[in-house]
Design a protein that fits this description.
Organism: Candidatus Beckwithbacteria bacterium CG1_02_47_37
Helix content: 10-25%
Radius of gyration: 28 Å
GO molecular function: carbohydrate binding
Shape: globular
Pfam family, one: PEGA
Number of strands: 32
Distance between the termini: 75 Å
Strand order of the largest sheet: 6-5-8-9
InterPro entries: 6-blade_b-propeller_TolB-like (IPR011042), Carb-bd-like_fold (IPR013784), PEGA (IPR013229)
Protein name: PEGA domain-containing protein
Length: 405
Protein backbone atom coordinates (compact mmCIF):
# COMPACT_ATOMS: atom_id res chain seq x y z
CA UNK A 1 0.00 0.00 0.00
CA UNK A 2 1.32 3.39 -0.98
CA UNK A 3 1.71 5.98 1.72
CA UNK A 4 -0.14 9.30 1.28
CA UNK A 5 2.11 12.01 -0.04
CA UNK A 6 3.69 14.17 2.65
CA UNK A 7 2.20 17.28 1.16
CA UNK A 8 -1.30 15.80 1.54
CA UNK A 9 -0.62 15.02 5.19
CA UNK A 10 0.65 18.56 5.71
CA UNK A 11 -2.44 20.04 4.02
CA UNK A 12 -4.77 17.89 6.11
CA UNK A 13 -2.91 18.82 9.29
CA UNK A 14 -3.08 22.49 8.35
CA UNK A 15 -6.82 22.24 7.69
CA UNK A 16 -7.44 20.45 11.00
CA UNK A 17 -5.40 22.95 12.99
CA UNK A 18 -6.96 25.92 11.16
CA UNK A 19 -10.49 24.59 11.64
CA UNK A 20 -9.83 23.84 15.31
CA UNK A 21 -8.41 27.33 15.81
CA UNK A 22 -11.38 28.98 14.09
CA UNK A 23 -13.85 26.89 16.09
CA UNK A 24 -12.02 27.70 19.33
CA UNK A 25 -12.13 31.41 18.56
CA UNK A 26 -15.79 31.21 17.60
CA UNK A 27 -16.55 29.25 20.78
CA UNK A 28 -14.75 31.83 22.89
CA UNK A 29 -16.85 34.56 21.24
CA UNK A 30 -20.01 32.73 22.22
CA UNK A 31 -20.88 30.81 19.03
CA UNK A 32 -22.70 27.53 19.68
CA UNK A 33 -24.12 24.79 17.40
CA UNK A 34 -27.80 25.31 16.56
CA UNK A 35 -30.03 22.27 16.03
CA UNK A 36 -32.49 24.40 14.07
CA UNK A 37 -30.06 25.92 11.59
CA UNK A 38 -27.48 23.11 11.81
CA UNK A 39 -24.78 25.75 11.93
CA UNK A 40 -22.85 27.82 14.43
CA UNK A 41 -25.03 30.59 15.86
CA UNK A 42 -23.67 33.68 17.57
CA UNK A 43 -24.63 34.05 21.22
CA UNK A 44 -24.10 36.68 23.86
CA UNK A 45 -22.93 36.33 27.42
CA UNK A 46 -25.02 37.25 30.45
CA UNK A 47 -22.82 37.77 33.50
CA UNK A 48 -25.36 37.36 36.30
CA UNK A 49 -23.47 38.83 39.22
CA UNK A 50 -24.93 40.13 42.47
CA UNK A 51 -24.14 41.43 45.94
CA UNK A 52 -24.68 39.50 48.09
CA UNK A 53 -23.81 36.39 46.12
CA UNK A 54 -25.77 33.18 45.88
CA UNK A 55 -29.03 34.67 44.59
CA UNK A 56 -31.38 32.82 42.25
CA UNK A 57 -31.44 33.92 38.60
CA UNK A 58 -34.74 33.73 36.72
CA UNK A 59 -34.74 34.25 32.94
CA UNK A 60 -38.18 34.84 31.45
CA UNK A 61 -39.66 33.64 34.79
CA UNK A 62 -37.73 30.34 34.74
CA UNK A 63 -35.17 29.50 37.42
CA UNK A 64 -31.97 29.13 35.41
CA UNK A 65 -28.90 29.42 37.65
CA UNK A 66 -27.46 31.24 40.64
CA UNK A 67 -25.14 34.22 40.87
CA UNK A 68 -22.26 34.51 40.15
CA UNK A 69 -22.48 32.71 36.81
CA UNK A 70 -22.07 33.47 33.10
CA UNK A 71 -24.62 32.19 30.60
CA UNK A 72 -24.55 31.88 26.80
CA UNK A 73 -27.84 33.12 25.36
CA UNK A 74 -29.08 33.67 21.81
CA UNK A 75 -29.36 37.38 20.92
CA UNK A 76 -32.60 38.97 22.06
CA UNK A 77 -34.34 40.67 24.95
CA UNK A 78 -34.79 38.80 28.22
CA UNK A 79 -36.63 39.47 31.44
CA UNK A 80 -34.04 38.82 34.15
CA UNK A 81 -34.98 38.53 37.80
CA UNK A 82 -32.51 38.04 40.63
CA UNK A 83 -33.93 37.09 44.02
CA UNK A 84 -32.65 35.99 47.41
CA UNK A 85 -34.54 35.24 50.61
CA UNK A 86 -34.66 38.28 52.86
CA UNK A 87 -33.92 40.76 50.05
CA UNK A 88 -36.01 42.86 47.68
CA UNK A 89 -36.01 41.16 44.22
CA UNK A 90 -34.24 42.83 41.30
CA UNK A 91 -35.79 42.79 37.81
CA UNK A 92 -34.79 44.28 34.48
CA UNK A 93 -35.26 43.74 30.75
CA UNK A 94 -31.80 43.14 29.28
CA UNK A 95 -30.80 43.00 25.63
CA UNK A 96 -28.29 40.28 24.77
CA UNK A 97 -26.15 40.89 21.69
CA UNK A 98 -23.94 38.41 19.85
CA UNK A 99 -20.29 38.28 20.95
CA UNK A 100 -20.89 40.85 23.73
CA UNK A 101 -21.07 40.53 27.53
CA UNK A 102 -24.01 42.03 29.43
CA UNK A 103 -23.59 42.32 33.20
CA UNK A 104 -26.38 42.62 35.75
CA UNK A 105 -24.27 44.33 38.44
CA UNK A 106 -27.11 43.66 40.86
CA UNK A 107 -27.18 45.19 44.33
CA UNK A 108 -29.82 43.55 46.53
CA UNK A 109 -31.20 45.50 49.47
CA UNK A 110 -32.68 43.88 52.61
CA UNK A 111 -36.46 43.54 52.70
CA UNK A 112 -36.34 44.18 56.47
CA UNK A 113 -33.33 46.44 57.15
CA UNK A 114 -31.83 46.86 60.61
CA UNK A 115 -32.36 50.23 62.32
CA UNK A 116 -29.61 51.21 64.77
CA UNK A 117 -29.30 54.44 66.81
CA UNK A 118 -26.16 56.47 66.14
CA UNK A 119 -26.81 59.33 68.58
CA UNK A 120 -28.59 59.24 71.96
CA UNK A 121 -28.77 62.88 73.10
CA UNK A 122 -30.43 64.30 70.00
CA UNK A 123 -29.06 65.65 66.74
CA UNK A 124 -30.15 69.10 65.57
CA UNK A 125 -29.69 70.46 62.03
CA UNK A 126 -27.39 67.72 60.66
CA UNK A 127 -25.28 68.94 57.74
CA UNK A 128 -23.20 66.61 55.51
CA UNK A 129 -19.73 67.67 54.38
CA UNK A 130 -18.96 68.12 50.66
CA UNK A 131 -16.66 65.07 50.68
CA UNK A 132 -19.51 62.84 51.87
CA UNK A 133 -17.36 61.52 54.74
CA UNK A 134 -18.69 63.55 57.67
CA UNK A 135 -21.81 65.11 59.20
CA UNK A 136 -21.89 67.99 61.69
CA UNK A 137 -24.84 68.41 64.05
CA UNK A 138 -25.77 70.14 67.32
CA UNK A 139 -26.60 68.57 70.69
CA UNK A 140 -28.55 70.52 73.34
CA UNK A 141 -29.95 67.73 75.51
CA UNK A 142 -26.79 66.12 76.93
CA UNK A 143 -26.60 65.04 80.57
CA UNK A 144 -23.99 67.72 81.32
CA UNK A 145 -23.90 71.29 79.95
CA UNK A 146 -20.29 70.92 78.80
CA UNK A 147 -21.36 68.08 76.52
CA UNK A 148 -23.76 70.31 74.59
CA UNK A 149 -22.41 71.87 71.40
CA UNK A 150 -21.38 70.76 67.92
CA UNK A 151 -20.39 67.21 67.02
CA UNK A 152 -18.92 65.59 63.90
CA UNK A 153 -19.83 62.05 62.89
CA UNK A 154 -17.31 60.27 60.66
CA UNK A 155 -18.88 58.12 57.94
CA UNK A 156 -15.69 56.42 56.76
CA UNK A 157 -15.54 52.65 56.33
CA UNK A 158 -15.69 50.57 59.47
CA UNK A 159 -15.69 46.77 59.81
CA UNK A 160 -19.22 46.75 61.22
CA UNK A 161 -20.75 49.89 59.74
CA UNK A 162 -21.23 53.13 61.64
CA UNK A 163 -19.75 52.02 64.95
CA UNK A 164 -17.72 55.11 65.92
CA UNK A 165 -19.01 57.70 68.36
CA UNK A 166 -19.50 61.30 67.21
CA UNK A 167 -16.68 63.68 68.17
CA UNK A 168 -17.46 66.92 70.01
CA UNK A 169 -15.69 69.81 68.25
CA UNK A 170 -16.93 72.72 70.39
CA UNK A 171 -19.28 73.66 73.23
CA UNK A 172 -21.94 76.35 73.39
CA UNK A 173 -22.63 79.40 75.57
CA UNK A 174 -25.16 82.23 75.75
CA UNK A 175 -22.73 84.47 73.86
CA UNK A 176 -21.81 81.84 71.30
CA UNK A 177 -25.08 80.02 70.69
CA UNK A 178 -23.78 77.34 68.35
CA UNK A 179 -26.88 75.20 68.77
CA UNK A 180 -28.85 77.53 66.50
CA UNK A 181 -25.98 78.85 64.37
CA UNK A 182 -26.07 78.68 60.59
CA UNK A 183 -23.32 76.24 59.58
CA UNK A 184 -21.40 76.04 56.29
CA UNK A 185 -18.72 73.51 55.37
CA UNK A 186 -15.60 74.64 53.55
CA UNK A 187 -15.21 73.10 50.06
CA UNK A 188 -12.39 70.84 51.30
CA UNK A 189 -14.47 69.67 54.30
CA UNK A 190 -11.80 70.68 56.82
CA UNK A 191 -13.51 73.74 58.34
CA UNK A 192 -16.98 74.80 59.42
CA UNK A 193 -18.13 78.41 59.32
CA UNK A 194 -20.64 79.16 62.09
CA UNK A 195 -22.84 82.25 61.72
CA UNK A 196 -24.14 83.12 65.21
CA UNK A 197 -27.01 85.51 65.97
CA UNK A 198 -27.58 86.29 62.30
CA UNK A 199 -28.92 89.81 61.66
CA UNK A 200 -28.49 90.97 65.26
CA UNK A 201 -26.08 93.60 66.59
CA UNK A 202 -23.97 90.87 68.17
CA UNK A 203 -23.75 88.80 64.96
CA UNK A 204 -20.57 86.73 65.00
CA UNK A 205 -18.79 84.44 62.54
CA UNK A 206 -16.28 81.85 63.70
CA UNK A 207 -14.25 79.24 61.83
CA UNK A 208 -14.09 75.79 63.42
CA UNK A 209 -11.54 73.05 62.74
CA UNK A 210 -13.55 69.86 62.30
CA UNK A 211 -10.62 67.60 63.27
CA UNK A 212 -10.23 68.80 66.90
CA UNK A 213 -12.02 70.39 69.84
CA UNK A 214 -12.31 74.17 69.43
CA UNK A 215 -12.16 76.01 72.77
CA UNK A 216 -14.70 78.85 72.92
CA UNK A 217 -12.16 80.97 74.85
CA UNK A 218 -9.97 80.94 71.73
CA UNK A 219 -12.68 81.96 69.24
CA UNK A 220 -11.81 84.72 66.77
CA UNK A 221 -14.57 86.67 65.03
CA UNK A 222 -13.91 86.47 61.27
CA UNK A 223 -16.80 88.75 60.25
CA UNK A 224 -14.39 91.37 58.86
CA UNK A 225 -12.79 88.71 56.64
CA UNK A 226 -16.06 87.00 55.75
CA UNK A 227 -16.34 88.41 52.17
CA UNK A 228 -12.85 87.14 51.38
CA UNK A 229 -13.53 83.72 52.91
CA UNK A 230 -16.81 83.32 51.02
CA UNK A 231 -15.25 84.50 47.74
CA UNK A 232 -12.38 82.03 48.14
CA UNK A 233 -14.74 79.13 48.89
CA UNK A 234 -16.98 80.02 45.95
CA UNK A 235 -13.95 80.12 43.66
CA UNK A 236 -12.79 76.68 44.82
CA UNK A 237 -16.29 75.22 44.35
CA UNK A 238 -16.68 76.80 40.93
CA UNK A 239 -13.28 75.45 39.86
CA UNK A 240 -14.21 71.90 40.92
CA UNK A 241 -17.51 72.05 39.05
CA UNK A 242 -15.82 73.57 35.99
CA UNK A 243 -13.26 70.74 35.86
CA UNK A 244 -16.02 68.12 35.96
CA UNK A 245 -18.25 69.95 33.47
CA UNK A 246 -15.32 70.30 31.06
CA UNK A 247 -15.24 66.49 30.67
CA UNK A 248 -18.78 66.47 29.25
CA UNK A 249 -19.59 66.76 25.52
CA UNK A 250 -19.90 70.39 24.43
CA UNK A 251 -23.71 70.42 24.34
CA UNK A 252 -23.94 68.78 27.76
CA UNK A 253 -21.55 71.42 29.09
CA UNK A 254 -24.09 74.04 28.06
CA UNK A 255 -26.92 72.04 29.63
CA UNK A 256 -25.03 71.61 32.91
CA UNK A 257 -24.05 75.29 33.05
CA UNK A 258 -27.64 76.43 32.53
CA UNK A 259 -29.21 73.72 34.72
CA UNK A 260 -31.34 74.57 37.74
CA UNK A 261 -29.38 71.97 39.75
CA UNK A 262 -26.54 69.53 39.07
CA UNK A 263 -24.75 66.84 41.06
CA UNK A 264 -21.97 64.61 39.79
CA UNK A 265 -21.78 61.04 41.06
CA UNK A 266 -18.94 60.24 43.53
CA UNK A 267 -17.25 58.59 40.55
CA UNK A 268 -18.04 61.41 38.10
CA UNK A 269 -19.00 59.57 34.93
CA UNK A 270 -22.63 60.44 35.60
CA UNK A 271 -24.47 63.74 36.01
CA UNK A 272 -27.74 64.21 37.90
CA UNK A 273 -29.42 67.40 36.71
CA UNK A 274 -32.61 69.43 36.33
CA UNK A 275 -32.42 71.28 32.99
CA UNK A 276 -33.08 74.98 32.80
CA UNK A 277 -34.71 74.82 29.36
CA UNK A 278 -36.32 72.41 26.93
CA UNK A 279 -33.88 70.81 24.52
CA UNK A 280 -33.36 67.72 22.37
CA UNK A 281 -30.06 65.92 22.87
CA UNK A 282 -28.73 64.57 19.55
CA UNK A 283 -27.70 60.94 19.35
CA UNK A 284 -24.04 59.95 19.56
CA UNK A 285 -22.65 62.99 21.37
CA UNK A 286 -19.72 60.65 21.91
CA UNK A 287 -18.82 57.43 20.05
CA UNK A 288 -21.13 54.62 21.23
CA UNK A 289 -19.77 51.73 23.26
CA UNK A 290 -20.51 48.05 22.57
CA UNK A 291 -22.84 46.37 25.07
CA UNK A 292 -24.02 49.71 26.45
CA UNK A 293 -27.21 50.06 28.46
CA UNK A 294 -30.33 48.90 26.62
CA UNK A 295 -32.73 50.67 29.00
CA UNK A 296 -35.15 53.26 27.67
CA UNK A 297 -33.64 56.73 27.60
CA UNK A 298 -35.12 60.19 27.11
CA UNK A 299 -33.25 62.72 24.97
CA UNK A 300 -36.09 65.25 24.88
CA UNK A 301 -35.35 67.06 28.13
CA UNK A 302 -37.72 69.50 29.84
CA UNK A 303 -37.41 71.83 32.86
CA UNK A 304 -38.70 70.67 36.26
CA UNK A 305 -37.71 67.08 35.48
CA UNK A 306 -34.80 65.12 36.91
CA UNK A 307 -32.42 63.32 34.52
CA UNK A 308 -29.18 61.37 34.69
CA UNK A 309 -26.65 61.66 31.87
CA UNK A 310 -24.13 58.82 31.61
CA UNK A 311 -20.97 60.28 30.11
CA UNK A 312 -19.37 56.87 29.53
CA UNK A 313 -22.24 55.52 27.40
CA UNK A 314 -23.88 58.77 26.16
CA UNK A 315 -27.22 57.75 27.66
CA UNK A 316 -29.76 60.15 29.15
CA UNK A 317 -32.38 58.76 31.54
CA UNK A 318 -35.53 60.38 32.89
CA UNK A 319 -35.80 59.82 36.64
CA UNK A 320 -38.83 61.73 37.96
CA UNK A 321 -40.66 65.01 38.07
CA UNK A 322 -38.86 67.27 40.53
CA UNK A 323 -42.22 68.12 42.11
CA UNK A 324 -42.72 64.48 43.15
CA UNK A 325 -39.54 64.33 45.22
CA UNK A 326 -38.64 66.03 48.46
CA UNK A 327 -34.97 65.12 48.00
CA UNK A 328 -32.77 63.31 45.49
CA UNK A 329 -29.04 62.66 45.63
CA UNK A 330 -26.43 60.12 44.62
CA UNK A 331 -25.95 57.01 46.69
CA UNK A 332 -22.31 56.41 47.58
CA UNK A 333 -21.80 53.56 45.06
CA UNK A 334 -22.48 55.92 42.07
CA UNK A 335 -24.89 53.33 40.61
CA UNK A 336 -27.94 54.24 42.68
CA UNK A 337 -29.98 57.32 43.49
CA UNK A 338 -31.41 58.03 46.93
CA UNK A 339 -34.87 59.60 46.68
CA UNK A 340 -37.18 60.85 49.42
CA UNK A 341 -40.94 60.98 48.95
CA UNK A 342 -43.05 62.76 51.59
CA UNK A 343 -46.49 61.61 50.51
CA UNK A 344 -47.26 59.91 53.82
CA UNK A 345 -48.52 61.53 57.08
CA UNK A 346 -46.58 64.37 58.71
CA UNK A 347 -42.97 63.56 59.66
CA UNK A 348 -43.16 60.32 57.69
CA UNK A 349 -42.20 59.36 54.19
CA UNK A 350 -40.52 56.86 51.92
CA UNK A 351 -36.85 56.45 51.13
CA UNK A 352 -36.28 54.88 47.74
CA UNK A 353 -33.10 53.55 46.17
CA UNK A 354 -33.22 53.34 42.37
CA UNK A 355 -30.63 52.49 39.76
CA UNK A 356 -29.18 55.48 37.93
CA UNK A 357 -31.22 54.61 34.82
CA UNK A 358 -34.44 54.96 36.82
CA UNK A 359 -35.18 51.22 37.07
CA UNK A 360 -35.56 49.03 40.18
CA UNK A 361 -37.09 51.65 42.46
CA UNK A 362 -37.02 49.92 45.83
CA UNK A 363 -38.45 51.33 49.05
CA UNK A 364 -35.80 50.60 51.69
CA UNK A 365 -37.57 52.54 54.47
CA UNK A 366 -41.13 53.76 55.00
CA UNK A 367 -41.88 55.41 58.31
CA UNK A 368 -41.24 58.46 60.47
CA UNK A 369 -38.24 60.67 59.94
CA UNK A 370 -37.65 64.38 60.38
CA UNK A 371 -36.86 67.17 57.96
CA UNK A 372 -36.64 64.87 54.92
CA UNK A 373 -33.10 64.09 56.09
CA UNK A 374 -31.67 60.91 54.58
CA UNK A 375 -28.00 60.52 53.75
CA UNK A 376 -25.90 57.56 52.53
CA UNK A 377 -23.02 56.14 54.51
CA UNK A 378 -19.61 56.46 52.91
CA UNK A 379 -19.19 52.74 52.16
CA UNK A 380 -22.61 52.17 50.61
CA UNK A 381 -23.71 49.67 53.27
CA UNK A 382 -26.01 51.99 55.21
CA UNK A 383 -27.87 55.26 55.18
CA UNK A 384 -28.67 57.76 57.93
CA UNK A 385 -32.02 59.24 58.85
CA UNK A 386 -33.05 61.78 61.46
CA UNK A 387 -36.00 60.38 63.37
CA UNK A 388 -37.92 60.72 66.62
CA UNK A 389 -38.90 57.19 67.64
CA UNK A 390 -39.60 57.79 71.32
CA UNK A 391 -43.38 57.73 71.30
CA UNK A 392 -44.10 61.40 70.68
CA UNK A 393 -42.14 62.69 73.68
CA UNK A 394 -40.54 66.13 73.75
CA UNK A 395 -37.05 64.65 73.33
CA UNK A 396 -35.17 65.79 70.21
CA UNK A 397 -34.76 63.45 67.21
CA UNK A 398 -31.68 61.28 66.83
CA UNK A 399 -29.63 59.97 63.93
CA UNK A 400 -30.31 56.34 63.04
CA UNK A 401 -28.38 54.05 60.73
CA UNK A 402 -30.37 51.83 58.36
CA UNK A 403 -28.10 48.86 57.61
CA UNK A 404 -28.45 47.80 53.97
CA UNK A 405 -25.94 44.98 53.66
Amino acid sequence: MRRPPRILIAVLAFLVISTSTILTIKFAKGYRPSLKTKALQGTGLLAANSYPRGASVFINDKLTTATDDTLNLPPGEYRVKIAKDGYIPWEKNLKIEAELVTQTNTRLFPAVPTLTPVTFSGALNPLPAPDGQKIVFAVENATADEKNGLYVLDLTDRPFGLNTDPRQITGTTAKYDLLHAQLTWSPDSTQILALINEGEVNETNVLLDQSRFNDIAEFNDVTARLPLIEADWQEVTAKKNHEKIAELPELMQQVATAAAAIAFAPEPEKLLYIPGEELTLPSDLIPPLPASSSQDEQRQIKPKNVYVYDLEEDKNFWIASAADLAEIQWYSDSRHLLMVEDNLPAQAGKIILAEYDGTNRQTVYAGPFVGEFAYPGANGSSLLILASLNGGSALPPNLYSIILK
